[in-house]
Amino acid sequence: MTKLLLCLVPLFVAVDAIGLLPMFLNLTEDVDKRQVRRIVVQSVATAMAVSLAFVAIGELVLRLLGITVADFMIAGGSLLFGLSLTDLLSFEKQHRRIDAESLGAVPVGVPLIVGPAVLTTTILLMHQQGVLNTSAAVVINILFAGVVLWYSDSVMKVLGKVGAKTISKLANILLAAIGVMMVRKGIMLFIGHS
To answer: Rounded distance, CA 1 to CA 27, Å?
Structure first.
């Protein structure tokens, strides 16, 4: 149970379901409610398929490329830090209108729900906490994101635009700290194997 919790928290921060809300509402503002429900289902299915495929073959791909866990921790931690810093320092993200038929798969499913932060965190957690705990945490977090998006109008009414942005910024601060921790652990692992 402790290992599952250790997987749930970083993946919760990486998915950032609350931070997705303003973007999701912006992308779907001209789409009727029934279509929005289909977009949510499509996004959850796509995010689940991509992330679980990554769990299944991600480590094999790394091995084939000759990338060690220490290498990935340093690179992944740097990427997480960079992504979180970019999101922290940006004031407003620009969005373009996208075809409602594919909106759930791209960009909502991938890369908004499952993007570089989630994939990097997943690989690192698999090595530290095991495949089963990581897979369960991935599924739980993606389903949670789906629920948040399903009830996006209600959640935004409760949080408000400022509340959603504040939660998103706090999540990015945590993501930056997780990135730094991964770089530190990667360097220590690298030194330990040298």
So the answer is: 37
